[in-house]
Every structure is written in C-alpha cells, then in structure tokens.
Specification:
Largest sheet: 2 strands, antiparallel
Distance between the termini: 94 Å
Bound molecules: zinc ion
Number of helices: 4
Structural class: alpha+beta
Number of domains: 2
Length: about 140
C-alpha cells in the first residue's frame, strides 16, 4: 500500500536500473578522517541506460527510473535531480571503459580461434583422423 502511494508521488516507472557490471574506480576515492579509503563504485551501463541518465529520467546517484525528466528530487535517495543531475553526470561520466581482462577485441578473437582449433585437433586425434604428432615409424625388416 505504502509502496503504491510512493510510486504515484514519485512518478517512478517501477523499473530501477540494474547494472550488469560494477567495479571500483581506482582514480576516485575519498580518504576518511580515520584513514579508511572509501572507493567509489563504477556502474557498467548500456548506452540506452546512460542516455536515460543524461536525459534526466534515471537518477544519477541511485539509478531509480522516472517517467518524467529531471524531477525536483529523487524520491529514493533525495538527490536534487533538477538542479544537480546534469552537472553530476558531467562529472561522473567516464565514457567507455573496458571491464574485465585487459585484452583487445582482436586478442579475444585470436584466443577464441586458437581454442577452437585446439579443440578440433583434439577431437580429430581422438577419432583417429589425425595421428598424435610424435610418431616414430620403424620400418619392417630393419633390425
Ligand atoms: Zn536517487
């Protein structure tokens, strides 16, 4: 019940953005007075999700999603979206970052290609189509 009321007030779409990947940002952290290092989270978002944040439909702070662009404030985290979202987005947007292993797409293809070839070779060897490499043949009749 309370949830439904909140939804109407907040103009939620009811579909907060969920990220497929998150990582910590090694270049942005806050050192607390007691010396602890608080790392910031980087969200991995699709182009469409980034577009909605840029256009003010998705809260840049907590990723709650709205029907209208730039509401006064996010009803979930109270971030003043109308006033600060554009500036916050400009500050936080990192462009395209590669997540995962730091290999290029070409390298990934090469690795995949190698794996396929190795598997095919193993299969053919098992089926007896290819002889295992080190095969020394001793011709008959020689002693
Ligand atoms: Zn929010």
């Amino acid at each position: 019940m309370a949830k439904r009321k909140l939804k109407r007030e907040g103009n939620f779409t009811g579909r907060p953005v969920t990220t497929e990947w998150t990582d910590t940002d090694p270049e942005a952290f806050t050192v607390m007075p007691d010396g602890r290092k608080m790392e910031r989270t980087v969200f991995g978002l699709t182009e469409e999700q980034v577009g909605r944040i840029r256009a003010g439909y998705t809260c840049v702070k907590c990723l709650e999603d709205y029907d209208t662009a730039f509401p006064d404030e996010c009803k979930v985290c109270h971030f003043p979206m109308r006033e600060h979202q554009a500036a916050e987005f400009a500050k936080d947007y990192r462009g395209e970052i590669r997540f995962g292993p730091s290999t290029t797409i070409d390298e990934e293809y090469e690795i995949a290609e190698e794996m396929i070839q190795r598997e095919a070779h193993e299969k053919a060897t098992k089926l007896g189509l290819i002889l295992p490499k080190p095969s020394i043949i001793v011709p008959r009749g020689i002693k």
